[in-house]
Amino acid sequence: MFSTSKLILLSLTLALIGVSPEKAAKTPSREGPEYTTDGQLRFPRNYRDWVWLTSDFHRASDPLKPQAGERRLFNNIFVNPEAYKAFLRTGRWPDRTMLVVEQRTAVEMGSTNPNQKGTDQNSVIGIGVHVKDDARFPGKWAFFGFQSGKSTASMIPATAACYRCHASRGAVDTTFVQFYPTLLPTAKSKDTLSPAYLQARRTLPAATK
Ligand code: HEC
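Output (structure tokens, whole complex):
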């Protein structure tokens, strides 16, 4: 079931066209969300210096119905260091947490790679950001998708599928901590796994929990 969820995520975030990390390196580092006066989120330019949570490798199409020429993509997930440290202490995300999913195309390893067989990451094709800001958003969290060359993004409306899937399937406070191996033990020991996740886990096949 989760593989289907991930595929939906891919198809949704595929729509978010890339922001180049080269451009991203120019401004000073900052922690926590920053907004323009009209309420757009500023691109977190230093996200590549943050804590890496995981990388997933997905088919772009449904694995049960493979399509000719289908693409595979990598999702690399990062969180700002302050929020990461707070999570390790408490099992909860503090106010002003920012999580970034960076999507990259996948290429078969070429002859320059001594391993020969396997897959490498290539260019960024999309960036999605999940922000916790208690005072600003009625649901405390909001999603943003950055389009090509843009340094700001509007909030994705709260009616979008992003919110429903994350709220009903994310293990901790609308985030997919079940896939972040350095955080899951803390969530378990601090007893912060969401009731919705615990309920869903009872009905999922073991491999997808
Ligand atoms: C059907 C389920 C589903 C939908 C819809 C979905 N996601 Fe996700 N999302 C996931 C899963 C599963 C992960 C865990 C990482 C992975 O498997 O790649 C994730 C991880 C993320 C993360 C990393 C931080 C976190 O919250 O765990 C961000 C950011 C994110 N998604 C953004 C989005 C955005 C933006 C949208 C809407 C355009 C969206 N997602 C829609 C399932 C979904």
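The CA atoms of residues 35 and 204 lie 39 Å apart.
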